[in-house]
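Support request, please re-run this one:
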Amino acid sequence: MPNSVKVTVPATTANIGPGFDCLGAALTLYNQFQFTLLEAPAGTVKVDVTGTEAGRVTTDSSNLAYKAFVQAYEKLQQPVPALNIAIQLGVPLARGLGSSSTAIVGGLLGANHLAGQPFSPADLVALATEIEGHPDNVVPALVGGCQLAAASESGQWILSEVPWHPDIVPVVAIPDFELSTEAARSVLPQSYSRADAIFNMAHLGLLLRGLATGDGAWLREALCDRIHQPYRKALIPGYDKVTAAALAAGAHGLVISGAGPTLLALTPPDQAAAVQQTMQAAWTAAPAAVSVHILALDTAGARVEHL
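Re-run finished. Output below.
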């Protein structure tokens, strides 16, 4: 068994319009976690963090990657070894890009490999989802691509990879303010009408076909949603202005990434640069500091390297 492993985990965008809590995709932004066993008493932990917003990440036993690591060992009913965790951050915190899921997946994979890989892929999906509370971020972070997750009647997770046409380019606008998942969930209603439920079911089906075919007209309509976006957009200053700018520049559509406040535009390849520039200008005029990135679908998911 290795003494040290490095886990690279992609950012994710969840929901993607009507796919609330069940659909997500891995993107080409990354956090890295290196786990190294120490010669020290069991339960000892040392955490070092560098990169984006490193000063805001806890470096004691409350660190989320470490908590996931501990839960894996507790599941195995084994003592938690002394550990050093070196974290390199490239995914902004609390922006709707799955930063917490990268920590959960990183911690679980680090533990699994240092313990000799006792967990199966299905075990890891179940444990990650149990910790996170829903599968839409952790599943694509683990396995890559665009993934639809459904719970079976027996409680097992069934994963279906969603084809993503190569002519669909994700462009993310990341504003310089945070929006916690808890705050974003607090504005959602406790119940929905039958009409809204049917609307979202139909639009999710259309979205799956639009992603597979790259049909821009289908995507533009399919990205509409009545479950979360109408309620959350009020928490994101500049939402309407940025949306209008992205559509005018040629985007197929725009959605809230995860719980927000990052906004995700899906664009044709030849419009991606124009959409990037107009989203940057529109949000800066809102006003809000923002960084806009042309990304791609990460198809590999989390990677583990034995050191």
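The chain has a mean pLDDT of 94. The first strand starts at residue 4 and ends at 14.
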